[in-house]
Task: inverse folding
């Protein structure tokens, strides 16, 4: 069973930065897709960014230009660099992964079979 473990969350002031990490128990190169999601209280889980096995990335409009997803296969680790943080970025952040090449759009949580337990990010104004 694949395990994903996130870390790096915390509390920062608006304008600050954080880097989230997600360590996988299996080779990250073998996943067809890996992504970051977030969920704020009372809101649905939303896709933040995705990276495909071959390298292309996509970021949600709300974070484009501020967040960057990347992957280090040697360390079996997925990252999310978050800069210029805003209070509306406050949420629980989850990493997700899937081996399947076609199982839905990247921003749909149902597309992913494997999930981490989440790491909290709180941004104060």
Result:
């Amino acid at each position: 069973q694949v395990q994903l473990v996130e870390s790096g969350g915390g509390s920062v002031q608006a304008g600050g930065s954080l880097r989230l990490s997600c360590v996988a128990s299996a080779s990250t190169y073998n996943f067809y897709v890996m992504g970051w999601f977030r969920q704020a209280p009372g809101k649905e889980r939303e896709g933040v960014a995705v990276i495909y096995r071959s390298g292309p990335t996509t970021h949600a409009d709300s974070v484009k230009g501020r967040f960057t997803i990347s992957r280090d296969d040697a360390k079996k680790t997925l990252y999310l660099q978050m800069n210029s943080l805003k209070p509306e970025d406050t949420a629980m952040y989850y990493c997700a992964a899937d081996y399947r090449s076609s199982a839905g759009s990247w921003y749909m949580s149902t597309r992913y079979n494997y999930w981490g337990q989440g790491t909290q990010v709180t941004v104060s104004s």
